[in-house]
Structures are given as C-alpha cells and as structure tokens.
Amino acid sequence: DRVMTNGSNEVEGVSVFDKPVVRVSKESDSTALISWDKVEGVNGYEVYRKTGSQSSYKKLKTLKECSYISKSLKMNETYYYKVRGFKKEGDKKVYTAYSTAKTLRMK
Question: Nearest Cα to 17, choosing from 100, 97, 102?
Fold first, then answer.
C-alpha cells in the first residue's frame, strides 16, 4: 500500500509515501508504548485507538515523534491502534494510508 490520500479515497497529486509500520507493547498495567518507523517526507503523525466495544477509531494525538504512550488502559480490555502520517501542503494536510491495525490485550 503506497497511497497518498486527501482523507477520502482519492489519490492526491504525485506524492506517494509508505504507510507507517507500527509496533505496540505493554509498558505497565495501565500504559502501552505505540511506536513506528519514520516515514520519509511526512511532517507528522496521527495516532488512533479503539477498544473491542467501540465500532470506530478515535484520534488520540497528533505529533512529530515516532512514539506515543497510551495511558489509563484497563485490564481485560482489548485495544486496537493505527497510525497515519501527513504532510502539510499549503493549508491542507495530505495523508498516508493508515498503518495495519495492531492489537493489544491488557492482561
């Protein structure tokens, strides 16, 4: 998947970026580390999460770094994370495809 989208399913211009490759690991009984490899050409990243009981992802954070600590996690809950990169072009953001979702079961 090397697709650059404008948030819909349309390909935007000739800019094409890899999607982030994400890793998730439990750090404590209530935190997890979400990290990913840097994607060349992007200005930042958006981190998304949903739980097993939610039907859609919610944006947690927009950042320039390649890692994020997810806090206040509950035991016996399953969390799903995905990340996408973006590049600012004028007053618009052009997005990479979403990473493959990663699952974390808090036990």
Answer: 97
